[in-house]
Amino acid sequence: MADRPETLEPEAEWRTAGDRIQTLLDACAAGGPAAHERAQQLVREVVGLYGAGLQRIMDQTNPALAERLATDDLVASLLLVHGLHPHDVRRRVADALDRVRPYLGSHGGDVELLEIADGTVRLRFQGSCKSCPSSAVTLELAVEDAIRAAAPEVSSIEVVAAEPTDVIPAQSLLAHLHSNGATAWHPAPELADLAPGEVAGFLIADATVLACRVDGQLLAYRDRCPVCVDSLAGAQLRGRLLQCPRCGTDFDVAHAGAAANGHLEPLPLLDRDGVLSVALTRDMVRASA
């Protein structure tokens, strides 16, 4: 297994700053309620201070410069925190979809923004990505990730289903991911080293991930056979079929790991800030800890 980079790229590092701050606050809680409250108050004072500074900057900024600031992800995220972003929610959602469209296009798909009402964004996916559930899950989570970063006030995202053509409906796979707890992205650059037709297991955030490369596409699955409920360690790949080494069941990895009596659990893969990442549900990480 390839060594994971010790440091994140600058753009990726600031995206995790919120998680690091929350971890530090949680650690302060060990010192008792008083220490925890002081730490929280310190954060509020610092946030309020730079918020006041941003307010003054935006009040004295001309429209052209405001537009430039709004296109910088880091600055835009700070403006959103303080309600200073110059664009309304529809513009921000539309811009987020435009930024992710090249990735959707690489999978032969696209997305249409239908409406935004009462905090809910309604979308419809288009193109060939609808025919592959594994791809659809990854693409929908990529879109959801982009929208929530651009418009944190959005309470829910709904995808209007097209005519069912999937071997396994993509919506059922997404529902399975969401029902298992919050989905978090974890760096997994070592998966990119897989050769065509190769299958291997990787330990990502203490969870075992099975990955393979088929027909030029990199795919990842949870390391669990749904038929014998055992590990897939030692599984063999024959074309698009992955055979469980214990019960002998063949799964079509190109169609969400479908089999006659069940299907594997696809894990979304996405290039985030230049780092290949995999989405793991909370229950996967907890079960492996």
How many helical elements?
A: 9
Largest sheet: 3 strands, mixed
CATH class term of the largest domain: Mainly Beta
Q: Between the first and last Cα atoms, what is the distance in angstroms? A: 19 Å
* CATH T-level fold name of the largest domain: Rieske Iron-sulfur Protein
Task: Explain the overall architecture.
- It is globular and about 65 Å long.
- The two termini are about 20 Å apart.
- It has three domains: about 60 residues, no CATH class; about 90 residues, GMP Synthetase, Chain A, domain 3 (2-Layer Sandwich); about 100 residues, Rieske Iron-sulfur Protein (3-layer Sandwich).
- Strands 1-2-3 form a three-stranded mixed sheet, with helices on one face.
- The chain is an alpha+beta fold.
Which secondary structure elements does this structure contain, and how are they paired or packed?
Layout: H1 10-15, H2 17-28, H3 33-59, H4 63-70, H5 73-81, H6 89-106, E1 109-117, E2 120-127, H7 133-150, E3 156-159, H8 170-179, E4 183-187, E5 199-204, E6 207-214, E7 217-222, E8 236-238, E9 241-243, E10 250-252, E11 258-259, E12 262-263, E13 269-272, E14 275-281, H9 282-288
Task: Give keywords.
3 domains, disordered N terminus, 3-stranded antiparallel beta sheet, alpha+beta, 289 residues, 14 strands, GMP Synthetase, Chain A, domain 3, Rieske Iron-sulfur Protein
